[in-house]
Amino acid sequence: MKILYFDIISGISGDMVFSALFHLLSKKAQKDFLKEFSLLKLPVRFSIKAVRKKDISAFQLAVIDKKTKPYQPKDFIAIIKSLPLKKEVKELSLKILNSLITAESKVHREKKRYVHFHEVGDYDTLLDIIGTSLLIDKIGPQEIYASPVVLGKVKAFATLEILKNVPLYEIDYPFELTTPTGAAIIKNLAHQFIPLPLMKIEKIGYGAGHFDLEIPNILRVIYGELLKKEDNIILIETNLDHLPPLIFENLFNLLFKKGALDVFITPIFMKKLRPAYLLSCLCQEKDKAELIKTIFSETETLGIRYYPVLRETLKREIKVVNTKYGKVRIKIGEFNNSQIKNFEYEDLKKIAQKKKIPLIKIYKELSPYLK
């Protein structure tokens, strides 16, 4: 699986993203991209050139001139919709722009259609967003990850609004290292914010910022093959010694409906050797609050603990086979150049119920399909 990893060393801005992604292209692809981009006739002229930051070779985007007439979000939206771009490029551009508009609207208590981007920067914003969306489409990663986002001492209100629920940390520089546009871009691009995953690096792009710091003011974007998928997920737990087991089926169903990845019960002994159950629920960070609320409501437990855990998953696919009982799905995982195959349980269950045949008999009869 081809991925991009945004290594946010000293902040992130729209021009740094544009430059780093541009750096990943071959020289011919760079020329073709600039020619294609010029045909869009955006109301801003720019240059992109090779520079050095602390002896690191990088590309840097610079605006030469731009139109300065007053504008509103609807103007940017109309421009994006009017451009001869692929559907996917337009959709990503509009998503990033909407994140900016929503954040500015909330911070300044203005209706979205009247929002002005203040420090975000006129038509520079349009250049950064459309350029990034086009470059992502050209590079074509299957997934995108990022490191936690670095902030300087100066933080725009919109930046923090956009980066809610994103891991952040601050370094001791009196600058705005991460801008609202950079925040909106990475919030919409990154599937997860994690340490560098196990991968085979093929290319590295460097996008230079405009500050001179003790550390290189660059954004590093890494392209390559993901060797093993690793997820950061949440494990929620609570000990239950006061409930009859009959409530667990309903509880499980509710938790799965609200986004649980897995739910399981472990018999345990608590203090004074009281028999009890350990309820465990795995979930994504975004579903944690709702699942905790459900557990409190359904179990009346007095306390819940949770913590992050790492999960590794195999590359997998679903194959449908035609059997004498009808279509059955087979889950296929790849490991060490071999395959691990299993039937989709729900398919076998439906056949067993419909045909009134023991499920184990159907499993044994169809097992040759797993070879």
UniProtKB/TrEMBL annotation:
Keywords: Nickel. InterPro entries: Ni_insertion. This is Nickel pincer cofactor biosynthesis protein LarC. It comes from candidate division WOR-3 bacterium.
